[in-house]
Amino acid sequence: MSDVIQQYRKAEDPIPSRMTAWQVYGAGMENVGREGKPEEIGVPEPGPDELLVRIDANGLCFSDIKIIKLGEEHPRLKGRDLRRQPIILGHETAMTVVKVGANIRDAYHVGDRFIIQADVLYKGQGMAFGYLLPGGLEQYCLIGREIIEGDEGCYLLPVKPETGYVEAALTEPWACVEASYRVSHRSNVKDGGVAVLMIAPGEDLADYTYDGLGRPCKVLATDHGQNYAYDARQSAQEMGIEWLSVPAAPDWEALSEEHTGGAGFDDVIALGTPDPDLFERVARLIAKDGVMAVLSEEPLSRPVSIDVGRIHYENITYIGSTNRNVVSAYRGWRGADLTKGGVVWLIGAGGPMGQMHLQRALEKPDGPSVVVATDLDLGRLETLRDRFSGAAEKRNIALHLFNPNAMEKGAFEEKIAEITGGRGFDEIVVLVPVPAVIADASRHLAAHGGMNIFAGVGIGTMAAIDLSGTWRQGARFWGSSGSTIADLRVMLEKTEAKEVVPNNSVAAIGGMKAAREGLMGLAAARFPGKTVIFPQIPDLPLTALTDLHDVLPNVAARLKDGKFWCKEAEEELLRTYMGKDATADAA
Questions:
Q1: On the CB side of 167, how many CA atoms lie within 13 Å of its CA?
Q2: Hey, is 472 helix, strand or coil?
Q3: Rounded mean pLDDT of 467-488?
Q4: Residue 586 has pLDDT above 70, yes or no
């Protein structure tokens, strides 16, 4: 390693009094910076319980675009006057400590490296990094007690000295990908919750087994005039559960308001197939993290319109079983990860996050044997072919890449039937926020198949899905938003163990002045992969890796296999811009 790189790693160089930062003053790209340019602001001095960190690399995320689009209307920024209190974006961040407050010098030292879990909770208040807390699109950043002494512990995770800056920064989006395969749901009725027993006409509660499934504080059971509920009521009361009989066709909205304060039912257990209209009505009243379970052998008479945004953001779960043991529905979770030797379909695989899902599927030691990756952009499909065909061949995985819209009518269905042998997909990962795509793709799930609704479809997004498969075939639907400290830690461990290579996700790089152009490129889907900004390099133009040989041939020469970002290319880039001969080298 050259002296230039060693010196940079030590972080002992003098700290300037001024720095470059991109501040956001409202909705719209025109409010990013001042007249399309970054600003010079003062470098803050850390207090006794604070750190000053240098931002080494920052990945651009579509969440940044959502903030720019919504401005003060963004849920995390409600009530903030951005004109008076601008924010600094960036949460996919690698950082190095350059100053340590007097009270924490035993725990932190100059040169320590970290990544950060963006979802910060402090004294019960959410104040995410890159949202309310200044983020990575500035050259230096204060790390305060909110992060160091957060409600879930310290939100900084230490990074090994030998880990690259870019791969460290990109563990955050990769953790979001990983989190979507770690999803689970409750294995019993919520203790202390409000449960509904929605009993279909002609069904007898005595025929169902439900003991030991949990202890809600209250059960609302529909009553069709039979006497079968008496034994169940007595049993519930003996366990301290309040049992209330409600009419066969009650005002469900009024019951939700009366018994949950409008928060919704924690569990809805349907004994027998419900009428589709009733299913839809009650599904709207499920609480966050709630479960709807159907025990029946009969299908719905039609697809039901459900809020797929709530599956994604609020962990609403639909489960079921064909037998009469309620436990079997709750304990029959198939798991969210890819099936060993299975067949997976990635819809919208050409985007930055889609490429991560594809890379993960191809690199997973016990992963699928067949991967179908579709996209409507032929250029992106060619990029996938160029980037990932070799990895698929090396692992003996059949990789199919195609654009469904470019195929003749019926040819797409025939192709899927041919690839899956007519049984459907074990997993379908949806990376485009289009409800019609979600609904149509759900028809192609295999028995016990699972759909990962990864794309951020907003709450209130309805899709018509035949949910009969959840109880008749064990199908499952799930989604996830963001990641936890545990997810980030797992991904950092995998990165530093070389089990996952986040660097392979990089499609473009740029210096600090190029950040706004990078955000515009992200919004326009300009690059088929991640864009990473180097805040300590002001004048590096936004450059696709495929064009790097024209801009920085010495850096391009260090790319892995001539196409992938790597630590060697990163060090050459830093050497070029940080060294004494930076101008000559860059030219």
A1: 28
A2: helix
A3: 92
A4: no
